[in-house]
Amino acid sequence: MLMVKTILVCCLFFISLFTLSHASSWNWFWWNEKDANFNPSNTVNDVPKSPIILVPGDGGSQLEAQVDKPEVVHYICQQKTSEYFTLWLNLADLVPYVIDCWVDNMRLLYDPETRKTHNPPGVSIRVPGFGNTSTVEYVDPSQVSLAGYFNVLVAEMVKIGYQRGINIRGAPYDFRKSPLELDDFYKNFKSLVEETYTINGGRKVMIVCHSLGCPTMLYFLNRQKFYWKNKYVKSFVTLAGAWGGAVKALKAYASGDNFGVITITALTIRKEERTFPSLAYLLPSDKFWAPHQTLLSTGRKNYTVADYQQFFNDINYPIGYEMWKDTKELTQSMDSPEVTVHCLHGVGLKTMSSLRYSYENFPNHDPLAESSDGDGTVNLASLRGCLRMQQQQLKPVHYTTFKGVDHMAIMSDPNVIQYLKRISIYNPNEEQSSWWETIWGGLNQFYDKIRHP
């Protein structure tokens, strides 16, 4: 009887291998006729393309709001609107007095019981353009050049045959939130990957992320089954990934960050920045900075990654410490995504590495900043975090740096775009699963079928 059961289990296992939901899982075993016209000698314009999904970073998605508020901070602020309006980004909102209305709408409220955030009373916020590229090409719908994001990259890919909404798509999300509050986004993103794969003839998808979008996507990939990733994901392309956070996030908590907009003060922006769990997620991680390394000094007190509780108490924002506790172990250990990785970032630029405040005015003034290597925003140690994946997975982790290319310019740098064009060429030979990938994926799927018949 035991032998019969063993035979049945083995039969079910091999049946599951042959029904991994697409014949391309066994392309190493036979040739797929639809790929017979592939010719590696063709130019990048002529060859088939792998579909791309773009995932923006902090501030890289448009946000829209509708309000019906019990009260407003100024008489000039709208208390009720009949339709949704652009909240992020409308450059006209970033002027004195009007910006107070904007801050009051953008901020989040943290619930220490549920450990979740929500919008202020009477404010509804949505993320437009999911699946398209329009709202990640420009963060201001007016498409002024100052608000360009993925616009140059998309335009360059269109030149070689990509089509917006078909094989180059966008996945905007509420960048104020940490991965813990993005369940709906992740559900929709998974469906977007599957849909994009299907409408492009079963070609695996390249996930191209920037900055905060990279650890946000690592969190997603870490929670997907191997057989799903092996079927749908060609590669994980990370542009300036903020893997271990950045000292700049510490400054935003202490005295704010006005993003270089000279018409507004950093302290005004600080009111809403502090409320974002994603900012806590981007604080320097104790897995990347040593516990004795001073990140902020007031002359009387030095703060390291081991002093966050004291830091948040001293700036009179203890909720920030709670949000940091929620987010400090999400992806900072750099667990393998189990897909091919292309890690690209700039180097050779002065990047904020430590902050010096005066004790008397801390934290309500701009600090003196010391600098070290990085991309102008994210510190080098954090950018290099992707290298930790090399020891954790069999799939390759390709690592390339670009001297003098800053955190935002990486999305429009000609050498970076040329790199993306090269790896976006669809090669059916590369998409064939190896024997170990097929067997391991089959075991994963077989186990799932047993657990969830």
UniProtKB/TrEMBL annotation:
Domain of life: Eukaryota
Transmembrane domains' residue ranges: none
Signal peptide: 1-23
GO molecular function terms attached to this record: O-acyltransferase activity
Keyword entries, A-Z: Signal
One Pfam short name: LCAT
SUPFAM superfamilies: alpha/beta-Hydrolases (SSF53474)
InterPro entries in the cross-refs: AB_hydrolase_fold (IPR029058), LACT/PDAT_acylTrfase (IPR003386)
Gene Ontology biological process terms, A to Z: lipid metabolic process
UniProt-recorded name of the protein: Group XV phospholipase A2
Species per Swiss-Prot/TrEMBL record: Tetranychus urticae
